[in-house]
Design brief:
Blueprint lengths: L1 E4 L3 E5 L2 E7 L9 E7 L3 E8 L4 E4 L3
Parallel strand pairs: 1-3
Antiparallel strand pairs: 2-3, 4-5, 5-6
């Protein structure tokens, strides 16, 4: 997880998820934030506003 990229971004490389959350300054009347939780198999990103929800698989 990284700070933010105003447009957001995601990449998967060498078995590693790289997630940049969206910046909150891009829109005047809409927010962008997430609640992130972990299971033994996934990283769950519940997005709100402009932030998209994602379920990322954790491979052992």
């Amino acid at each position: 997880m990284n700070g933010h990229n105003h447009a957001g971004n995601y990449a998967f490389q060498n078995g590693i998820h790289f997630v940049n959350l969206k910046g909150m300054v891009e829109t005047e009347n809409e927010n962008a934030f997430s609640v992130i939780s972990f299971t033994n198999e996934t990283i769950e990103i519940e997005g709100f506003g402009r932030e998209e929800s994602q379920s990322l698989s954790i491979k052992k």
